[in-house]
Structure prediction request, 288 residues.
Amino acid sequence: MSDAPFYGVRTTGVYCRTGCKSRRPLPRNVRYFATIVDAQEAGFRACKRCRPDAAAAIDERIAQACRILDSSAEAVTLAELGERVGLSPGHLQRRFAAIVGMSPHRYAKLAREERYELPRKGGKGSTVTYAIVDSALGRVLVAATPRGICRVDIGERDGTLERCLREAFPSAQLARSDDRLESATSRIVAYLANEGPWPLLPIDVRATAFQMRVWDALRDLAPGKTMEYGQLARAIGSPSAARAVARAVAANPIALLIPCHRIVPATGGVGGYRWGPQRKERLLQLER
Prediction:
């Protein structure tokens, strides 16, 4: 049996929480999921008995665990964290992942980075390599550290793109090298020309724990699918945080790789986009 918090039943098309009181299906008909978004994307609908779509409702014990991790200067083990909030390590791990969208270990890592690394987001002491290439949507700038892609911009003029890069990393050493980033840029260009899949590339971005939850959920949203801000807020377990989610989406520094274009307004249409609504509509049409 899997430790995943949700499971879907192939014969009924319904997904449940693992603790659902409904009659257990045959193992061969079961598919397990880490999040409700995974289950929904696979075409399953929520069980009306255990209400898995409400499983992300905020649990005060998980909120307390987040506060502990946010304020702890030293590493806290899963056992220690469970003891402090009154949950067994296994249950804490599963419940935390279902509500927050990541493990306690990763949340703690992001919280430490937020405290210590974000002040260095200007790039002090780092080298950023970049390339600018033609694409179906105009000129595309791709910038990277040794760890991964740190910025993607779309525009018309190289000078404007380079100026935006300098503003984003004022203290970094910038070096243009189209050859070095050829693999990444060629995959992005092929995708924009409808000649290749959506590029899954390593990324290196600074973010708060909340922003990373939003961006991870965006990266889990499959090409051809769209979501509203309120739906995205519910997907990450923060149903009342639609405005904060919108701010996190707008702060996305790597267009395409974190696909913010897949978020559309509830009122209809494609909505706003940093690189223009026409480009957003083109991307959505391409992915459909």
Remarks:
- The longest helix spans residues 104-116.
- The two ends are 36 Å apart (CA to CA).
